[in-house]
Design a protein that fits this description.
CATH architecture of the largest domain in chain B: 3-Layer(aba) Sandwich
Number of helices of chain A: 12
CATH topology of the largest domain in chain A: Peroxisomal Thiolase, Chain A, domain 1
CATH class of the largest domain in chain B: Alpha Beta
Strand content of chain B: 15-25%
Strand order of the largest sheet of chain A: 5-4-6-8-1-9-15-14-10-11
Number of helices of chain B: 11
Number of strands of chain B: 12
Largest interface: A-B, 67 and 68 residues
Structural class of chain A: alpha/beta
CATH superfamily of the largest domain in chain B: Thiolase/Chalcone synthase
Largest sheet of chain B: 10 strands, mixed
Radius of gyration of chain B: 19 Å
Strand content of chain A: 15-25%
Structural class of chain B: alpha/beta
Helix content of chain A: 25-40%
Number of strands of chain A: 15
CATH architecture of the largest domain in chain A: 3-Layer(aba) Sandwich
Distance between the termini of chain A: 11 Å
Radius of gyration of chain A: 20 Å
Largest sheet of chain A: 10 strands, mixed
Shape of chain A: globular
Shape of chain B: globular
CATH class of the largest domain in chain A: Alpha Beta
Oligomer: heterotrimer
Number of domains of chain A: 2
Number of domains of chain B: 2
Strand order of the largest sheet of chain B: 4-3-5-7-1-8-12-11-9-10
């Protein structure tokens, strides 16, 4: 217990930047990526606020040199772009040199194309190529192909908004147990009419910028994004003399077993997930220097998560913030996006602000960090919670 | 490292498999393109208040889980790991057509909530009040094997004692129609018991749920021991015999040691060649078993193959309807499973008598 | 008013899949949530859509629903006062 799994590369595309550096620049500049829907064909265009990525599918397709006959969903495009960045940043030139896998997360999969062509499929042969691109595993297969991962452990996790955190967790366990030498882990989700309307029916979409942990929070903004990490075994790191960005130090997953969508008032599942992660990391609550909270800005999540944080950390809650005010809630990708932000926080000894916060919550005394803050960071905890009671925590550290 | 045992089974399929006292003693034959399941009485297992929002996939998953828990004599498990290729497809279809038909107006949340892939896993956790580890794998034909890999890892390292794993998929009518258009489903209804000899492209589809309690403690109810499971995103026919051999030798056995090989043939002339490569190659002298003519093809159909394997090992019986060749079978000690779908997402699973 | 109550009961049973219930099982003053019919927050969202679709009443905050959906009586009273169709 306690020994970390090395992270040697990372890649990201989100509403605040098309690569790691652009994301970092936006984070320190306090630059949000939230605006009214402009790219999706929906009656909510110009109304509901989301975190869209400006680059179009066509631009991604030409960047990647895909043939016009390709059947990539936007999820697959975002995922492939971010995963390639991660592999490049890890300095990997021959992916087949070590036993390499890919664990990817998505909730939307190819729904963006399905909803566009659903009723057209039976009659328009030109769009039928997207039928087989609908299922969640399809984007992962395509990312593996783009990375050149063949005959490998390639699989997909879908546990709603905690999916990517779980992909990181499973990947870390595959490395720890010696099943793989190297694994690319993360998640991708594009925006779709399906999810936008789905969250609208739950009445948890804010009509303005989302305000995590604020007393008057009105709900979340959805976002689209993809991010991936490269995890490598100590043996590979040593053999290749690799620089290590950070370590996956601990992880925990638990189920709230309370309700299909709502979190329990006292955050039982979240508490268990944080406690397990600390146990796997061999750390005490006092060892955590910063928490990148799930903080979706829904009434229910922030209350439940805040209470769970207090249950775990008592009266010594470290600085915490939610970065969802920057990117929106990127669903299955969120855990990977926030993993990248947690690693950036460690690298730069910087806590990113919880934007849009004005009024502390009445339910408790803790309040998020609202300005960019320098602090020597050794360990960062990242929370991701989802429907179906799914609660996940990953701890990243500078030292193994 | 601890051993991993199959301590119970629970199956809902196109055959009457929900009764654990039987092992395919009666076989239901179909003349269909898509097979329904033989339903248990769901109300015997799920209270009406909980059932009212449950889609078919959830009901099948919850009931197969409860049967598996009963069979294991357990009230609770440490973790729940689900595999599903398409999740609750019917609710996804329902919500999407509501969006399109009503021009994004008057939409209600229930079908959206049910459409997320981890609904089944979440509902099982709710029903069992299990606050433990809960994952859902959604990777086509290795969804179930991914769940098994994950559980095996935890049990070997003693991170958990009892883990419920399962594979579940439901048929969605519209999506099935689309899969007919692109030729993934056979163009005509066929006698499903003869489908493995079919000369046409595509498969007969099905649905179902197969759940198992895996444990690192053997008991008198144990069905078998999982020695190894391996998944491959791509594999060519020319590599198949070598990869199977390498997989076996990594586990200290050779092809001659395999008493039965369980193959995922579905009667699709375009892709059954993968199975034939093994059936006419490394395992040409091995008793061969097929099962998709009984359950239909779906992303987690291999979980039915795993159910067949568990039952074979425990009962030391091989129902005639499963046999693909007529080599004599004596004792069933080592079983290898191989599956793929449309040439992708291959898996090998090695299960042993215990 | 009685007709409206009858209609509400029928719609609630159908919309919320209360399979084992008939109209006679729901009394006008039965609590719909909690210990009564046992409806939950997802049902409340379904009822909000029902108000909009059938009676032209738009609620923007699900919290508003709590008092309105207390019983068939409260629902019927609110609807007859605020309906636009």
């Amino acid at each position: 217990m306690g020994k970390g799994v090395a992270i040697t590369g990372m890649g990201i595309v989100s509403a605040i930047g098309n690569n790691v550096d652009e994301n970092y620049q936006s984070l320190i500049a306090g630059k949000k990526g939230i605006s009214r829907i402009s790219k999706i064909d929906t009656i909510h265009k110009g109304d509901i606020m989301v975190g869209e990525i400006a680059t179009t599918n066509q631009e991604f397709i030409s960047q990647m040199g895909l043939s016009p006959e390709n059947n990539y969903s936007r999820t697959a495009l975002l995922g492939a772009v971010a995963a390639k960045q991660a592999v490049n940043s890890a300095g990997i030139t021959d992916i087949t040199k070590y036993k390499t896998g890919l664990i990817s997360a998505t909730s939307v999969g190819g729904m963006d194309m399905t909803e566009k062509y659903y009723y057209e499929y039976p009659t328009n042969t030109a769009v039928q190529k997207y039928i087989d691109g609908h299922h969640a595993g399809d984007s992962t297969q395509k990312i593996a192909e783009q990375l050149g991962i063949l005959k490998g452990v390639v699989t997909t996790i879908s546990t709603a908004c905690s999916s990517a955190a779980n992909a990181i967790m499973f990947g870390a366990r595959l490395i720890k147990s010696g099943q793989l030498d190297r694994v690319v882990v993360g998640g991708a989700d594009c925006l779709s009419m399906f999810t936008i309307n789905g969250f609208k029916t739950l009445m948890i979409l804010s009509d303005t910028y989302n305000t995590p942990f604020d007393e008057h929070r009105k709900g979340l903004n959805l976002g689209e994004a993809a991010a991936y990490l490269v995890l490598e075994s100590d043996a590979v790191v040593k053999a290749e003399n690799k620089p290590v960005l950070a370590y996956v130090k601990g992880y925990g997953n638990a189920n709230d077993a309370f309700h299909q969508t709502a979190s329990s008032e006292n955050g039982d599942g979240a508490t268990l997930a944080m406690e397990k992660a600390l146990e796997v990391a061999g750390l005490e609550p006092k060892d955590i220097d910063y928490i990148n909270a799930h903080g979706t800005a829904t009434g229910n999540n922030d209350l439940s998560e805040g209470r769970a944080i207090i249950r775990v950390f008592g009266d010594a809650v470290p600085e915490f913030s939610s970065t969802k005010a920057y990117t929106g809630h990127t669903l299955a990708a969120a855990g990977a996006i926030e993993a990248v932000y947690s690693i950036l926080a460690l690298q730069h000894n910087t806590i990113f602000p919880n934007l849009n916060f004005k009024m502390p919550m009445e339910a408790f005394d803790i309040r998020p960090e609202v300005s960019l803050k320098s602090k020597e960071l050794h360990t960062v905890m990242s929370n991701s919670f989802g429907f179906g009671g799914n609660c996940s925590t990953v701890i990243f550290s500078k030292e193994a | 490292m601890k051993n991993v045992y199959i301590n119970s089974v629970g199956s809902i399929s196109a055959q009457k498999t929900y009764d654990n006292n039987e092992f395919l003693s009666e076989v239901v034959s179909y003349q269909e393109q898509i097979l329904p399941v033989v339903d248990p009485n769901y109300k015997d297992y799920i209270p009406p208040a909980a059932a009212r929002r449950m889609a078919k996939g959830i009901k099948m998953g919850v009931v197969a889980s409860k049967i598996a828990l009963q069979d294991a004599g357990l009230e609770e498990v440490d973790a729940i790991i689900t595999g599903t290729g398409m999740g609750c497809l019917r609710d996804s279809e329902k919500f999407l057509s509501a969006i399109l038909d009503n021009k994004e107006q008057y939409l209600t949340p229930t079908s959206f909530i049910q459409s997320t892939h981890n609904t089944v896993g979440g509902q099982i956790a709710l029903e069992l009040q299990c606050k433990g580890y809960n994952f859902t794998y959604v990777h086509s034909s290795v969804s179930f094997e991914s769940a098994m890999m994950d559980a095996k890892l935890q049990l070997e390292l003693d991170e958990a004692k009892n883990i419920l794993i399962g594979g579940v998929d439901e048929i969605g009518e519209y999506t099935a129609g689309l899969h007919k258009i692109i030729g993934h489903i056979k163009p005509e209804a066929e006698d499903v018991l003869q489908v493995l000899q079919s000369k046409t492209k595509g498969a007969i589809y099905g649905e179902g749920a197969n759940f198992f309690v895996l444990s690192n403690e053997r008991n008198e109810n144990s069905y078998g021991k999982i020695k190894s499971v391996s998944i491959f995103n791509t594999l060519s026919k020319s590599e198949l015999n070598n990869e199977a051999e390498a997989f076996l030798s990594a586990n200290g056995v050779s092809a001659e040691d395999i008493d039965v090989v369980v193959l995922g043939n579905n009667g699709d002339v375009e892709f059954d060649g993968y199975y034939e490569t093994l059936a006419n190659g490394l395992f040409q002298n091995t008793p061969q078993v097929c099962y998709k003519h009984l359950c239909g093809e779906f992303n987690t159909a291999s979980s039915f193959g795993f159910w067949v394997t568990a039952k074979m090992l425990k009962n030391q019986a091989l129902p005639e309807v499963l046999r693909f060749n007529d080599f004599p079978v004596k004792e069933i000690k080592q079983v290898l499973l191989y599956n793929q779908y449309r040439g992708e997402n291959h898996s090998f699973t090695l299960v042993e008598q215990c | 008013m009685e007709a409206l109550k009858q209609e509400l009961k029928e719609n609630i049973i159908e919309q919320l899949n209360l399979e084992d219930m008939v109209v006679a099982d729901i009394a006008d003053d039965d609590m719909l949530f909690g210990d009564g019919l046992g409806l939950d927050s997802i049902d409340a969202l379904e009822l909000i859509v029902m108000l909009d679709k059938n009676y032209g009443i738009k609620l923007t905050d699900p919290k508003e629903g709590r008092a309105i959906f207390e019983s068939i009586n409260t629902m019927a009273a609110y609807i007859s006062e605020n309906r636009t169709k």
